[in-house]
Design brief:
This protein is an alpha+beta fold. The chain is built from 4 helices and 12 strands.
Length: 148
Amino acid sequence: MIEYRGCELPENLWYDLDYIWVAPEPDGTYRIGITDPSQTMAGRVQYVTLKPVGTHRKWKKPLARLESGKWAGGIPAPFDGVIVAVNDRVLADPGLINIAPYGDAWLVKMKPDAPERALEHLVTGAEAVEKLKAWIDRYDVQCMRCAQ
């Protein structure tokens, strides 16, 4: 894992280079959450709403909504697909996003409509890390994760 300006940037995930990370699962689904720089920019997350299991989302349409003391907004779907699981832990404790953005604080799991194209709008590896560093610099982010 790369760390830059306090931000954790796992090289094994896929990123939309704005809000989200995506992790392929062995069963063909994808776990989705928000990045460390994004959770820092949002501030302490106070409310989370997730689209329910069975909901179909088009690429870039919101699959979740987060609210903090200084920000509220939708989290976009990384591809067309159906939500197959939601993270009840995040619903019960939204602040978990500020503590473990890449671990326990995933938001939803989705099954893509077209698995062969699921990652076409995302970036991974060294290229993703370099582009995320540029995003961090552009917004002058210094990541911090909250304690319990």
